[in-house]
Amino acid sequence: MQKVLYVEDNLLNMALMHHLFKKNLPSVQLLKAETGEQGLEIAEQQLPDLIIMDIGLPGMNGYETLECLQRSAGTCDIPVLAISAFAQLSDLAMARDTGFAGYITKPIQVRVFTETVQELLAGAGRLTRN
């Protein structure tokens, strides 16, 4: 069974993602973390196939968390999909330049999100769509 780690501090968004995975990606186990620090710990322990990361996290933000994941031999090859309400072209460019595998803006479009997750889990690597 494939595993996806979702790092999100908003409990409503967390519940929505849980529902979305249960309905659209039932064969994927969803792991959850509320902070970047907790996400790093879970990623090191569980080695998920994909990490979905909110950018605007309290404490260590999504960019800082990604940087730590990239520096670790155990997690450096795990694709990380950014998900954020920040939707300016500069936000998309920064995410791409930083090394995120893709960028989804909130509110998410369920079909696009589901297809993106499926592609990344199938080994598509970096995606260009947002």
UniProtKB/TrEMBL annotation:
Domain Response regulatory: 3-121
Alphabetical UniProt keywords: Phosphoprotein
Name assigned to this protein: Response regulatory domain-containing protein
Modified residues (4-aspartylphosphate): 54
InterPro entries tied to this protein: Bact_response_regulator, CheY-like_superfamily, Sig_transdc_resp-reg_receiver
UniProt record, GO biological process: phosphorelay signal transduction system
Domain of life, source organism: Bacteria
DNA repair found in the keyword field: no
Organism: Paenibacillus stellifer
